[in-house]
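Hi there,

I know you've been waiting on this one. I reran it after we fixed the sequence typo, so this is the corrected version. Both the input and the resulting structure follow.
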Amino acid sequence: MCSIAGIYNSHENYDIKHEYTTNLLINMNNHLKHRGPDANEYVVLQKCALAHTRLSIRDLITGNQPMMKSIYNNQIYIVYNGEIYNADEIKHELLSLGYEFTTTSDTEVLLQAFIHYGPDFVNKINGIFAFAIYDKANETIYMYRDHFGVKPLYYTISSDATLIFASEIKALFCYPGINPIIDKDGLCQIFGIGPSKVPGSGVFKNIYEVKPGHYIKYNSYGANDITYYRIISAPHNDSYEETIEKTSYLVRDSIQRQMVSDVPVCTFLSGGIDSSIVSSICAKQLSINNKQLDTFSFDFTDNSIYFKSNSFQPEQDRPYVDLMKDYIKSNHTYLTCSIEEMADMLYGSVISRDLPTMADVDSSLLYFCNKVSDTHKVVLTGECADEIFGGYPWFYRHELVNSKTFPWMIDISPRIDILSNELTEYLNLPEYINSVYSSIVSEINMLPEENETERNRRKIGYLNIRMFMQTLLDRMDRTSMYSGLEARVPFADPRIIDYVFNIPWKFKYKNDTEKSLLREAMRGYVPDKILFRKKSPYPKSYNPLYEKILCERMRDILQHGNRKLLDLLDISSIEEFLDSPKDYGKPWFGQLMAGPQMIAYLIQIDYWMTTYNIVLEL
């Protein structure tokens, strides 16, 4: 796993200012080196300059980038971040066509496939990726992003038509004239739908991301945004038994494919259904070669003392971790994070994403990933299963299914209450949220035979994949890559999502049990006590000390914080909120972000605006 960066302008000659361009690329790489600490390289061409940092996982010796291939006197270059899980099949096909390979890397497979099949070769790929390919003879650059946005890719176009792109936003600010400006739309995203963001947006003014399932072609004629993949609604004709069998195969095959690596892999094991499935398949696969799987679980210091059961988090995970690690005979490590460490990591979490994040949901994972990276470079996770198989309450609670808004943030009053009256009126968050919701829902092709309830469930399934899952994927990538750890997400395999998206709800929620389809499909791989336990989300702390730390830091901000932020807030409402008991069981975003996380989110916004020297353009 790596980072990529580069610039392109059809009217430039970077050869003439080689030293200046080289220094620019080095600076961009320096801002991204946490993603790839093993190598740092670049190439300067006449119209284009490319940079790459590398985390060596496959082809450890000969896989360095930028990589180049020549064909008919034309040079084709690539910088690539990701992992291609069907690289062997594509390579075998190209070998049969007469192509020769000098490395064992999937980077070369991508480059040769582009040369043979053309820009639409991306339709053949199964993997997580963000890459740029430069066609020198045709003076055209292509930027690609995987089906669901597992890997990030941001870009901007300057006033002189220079394209600047990078794996993370921070590297874009290395280019002269690209500044951290937040306008009305950016504030609407931060306060209205944050920590999510609009697909294709970088939140900062004039900064964008290549949308999942898209690639962008850019040359002297401008930019052309091409959709190569989208989720399609279609009738499901398989029987229940056939559906279970096919789901089981797809999940097992995806996990096995994603174990490909020239360095050892490990898994996150929370004791929940999803991570237990991934860990079980990995352990079984490794045992074939008499190898033992390394697993890691996370919790907070003294959490057993302060844990409070609620509808979102009914029980603790530790007993199930103990059961599962013994079941698969893994080499298990229990990681714990103190309250002070989690609070301090709120700031690093902002740097990892260049934006305010999911508060301690991100900061704690940032801490844990840092610890795992001490011994491993690759981890498989259970992320995305809930979005795909219907694990959240908003898939089956009537009032949420029919909410006609983002069901993970039904009540937006906590967001509005913290803002000044002037900003509340200016932003008009209800109207903004409805506009974003309507825009995404309009992308769905509905089936005429479905009733209103099933249509609403289809909407929720699509919204989860396009928005909520994307937020969690951003979280997983940034928190892991901040320490040079590659996190893979087998449940986000497009073959699984394409199939499961169209499975009727009666199959997914049999006997009024969420994710019943996945549970049935994986019988025998996980003990029934785990397989049929009530869903439990990512762990959070209930230690009152955490709330106390947050309140103290927020009060200090109200006294000495960023003036730009304070002018946007209703100070008296926040002071009243700090003095009142916090509701842990009524989230304002997802299932974990409740009262304390609102304080943490504001702390992050203050740090973000100060550290990035945000310019407000209202």
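Quick highlight: The radius of gyration is 24 Å.

Best,
R. S.
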